[in-house]
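Let's do one together. I've listed all components of the complex below, 606 residues spread over two lines.
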Amino acid sequence: MRLWGAALLSLPLSVMLVGLLAAALPVPWSSWLVLMLLLVVILWMGLVVLAAMPRRVLPGLAGLLVANGVAALLLQATALYGGGT
Amino acid sequence: MKAERLRRFIDLHASVGMVSGLLLFVAFFAGAINVFHHELHHWQALPSSSSAPHDADRFLERLTGHFPQAAERFYFLPGEDPGAMWKQDGEWRTAHASSFTGEGTFSVLPESGLADFINELHYQLAIPGGAGLLNIGMTLMGLVAVLYGVALFSGLLIHWPKLGKELLALRHQGNLRRYWKNLHNLIGVISLPFHLIMAVTGAAMGLFTVMAVLLGALVFGPQLQDVIAQETDVWPPMERAGEPVAMALMADYLSAAEHAVPGLQVAWVEVRGYGDSQGWLGVAGSVPGNLGHHAHVVLDPELKPLRVISPQQRNLNYASLSPVYSLHFGDYGGLPVKLMYFLLGLLGCLLFVSGNILWCERRSDRTGPSRASAFLLRLTLGVCVGVVSGVAVSFWVSKLGLHSPWADQVQLLERLAFVLVLLPLVLWSLRASPLRYCGLGMRIMPWLYLAIPVLSVLLEGSRAWREGDVLLVNLLMLSLAGLLWLVRIHFRRRVRLAEPHPLWVGRVSETHPLKAADAES
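Okay, and this is what the predicted structure of the assembly comes out as:
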């Protein structure tokens, strides 16, 4: 339960965190697409491990859910979606 | 680290290891052999009937004359018997210069598909369905690679505080279970960089489509698809047919590419619009001495370079993509690195098997005998013995099939033989005593691999040692037989020195004392 929940919720979060990094860095995001992909994979693995730290299952998964929401809101503030490269 | 947190990490490590361990065993065993994919292609081919090299340009004229669809896009493979791959009515086809007779008649010669089968077993468990948008087997293996990465990170957190002690803790005396546990830890720690590389690059390659869809949906929008094409295509696809143009000699194109990138070793050429003024040729190869050794030279039909991508001249995306491939495939350092990958791949198999066995025994000790532990132990043994034996039998069928009346069906027979060996062995493992089953498997498997080079010598005579690639694959099969024999010796020693865990014995009763004799049978 903990593993599958963490794996499912960590994937969009890692994708959005890398998106936020792309928005923050002063280089065109299209120039480092491959590194972005590798970073998403490593972040995803790391987040699943971190989700195993809390003693109980629900707080960890709830934390991931909230983090997903916050990352999605922050992404709205960037010009990445449909914007230039 | 607090004991409770440590226990949670151990549980995470064990559960992701159990979920992914068996599939990783298949991927690593096939992957260890697949390191020599190129050599295996030569090993599986029938001996050439003609010693004179074929004319590449004549072959291409005949190919595009017989198959006009091929002229739109094909991959040319240079060599003494040049080949080409193209899509004919939606299906990939292969032809060689030797497929055409002196009068220009085309005839399909039977070919083994062993190297491609081993490759598919490695990256998609040979699950069919790679033609659609999402390759199910490849995506599954990508997910497994992520779980594998989680197991590695959690394993590192567990062992980090006592890493030094554990490196020196491999002993033969005392508790035999501890010996296998220490062996598991030792292999894991020593080959950690290799496994991290495999987990990250494997997940990135397997989940590329999923990641691209998610990045597009959540972050960049629909524009991402075009941007990926722009950044990763060596040259845009030909959009319209131009005027017919006389093509230069293939040797001149290769020479022009080598001139543009000194030291380039050509692997293949992508040809778009053969005989068309708007067409282009992408010469792909490698420049030895670089980790990211891949290079591309795009030429127009009149030999003018349109784009050069080389280790000294490429953008960040190519500079990061090339090492991803070379680190995963181990093709950046010649034979020594390939052999190292082969051994590390096999050690990885040992890591996954020992991990699964330790988990089953530990769970049984903690919670008492259970059907789940017994089932998982038997399934682990069944899959391992089944896959190792099945691959060996596929090798036999590949070699024997081309010399039999069923040569036209050899590609199907290789795959069928694998399944027909794997399934009964897995089913049998679920019924048999694990100790007896494992003992029998260990006894037979080295002979299965020893038979491969023997068959090669019997069927092809001196080719088995005169051609470098054929000799190398035969030696690898011999070494596999030797390594399996070594594992058998260790297995027997374990059974001789210590009472087997109750899980291994199957039915435990005073009238059914299955011990060392089982391992010998």
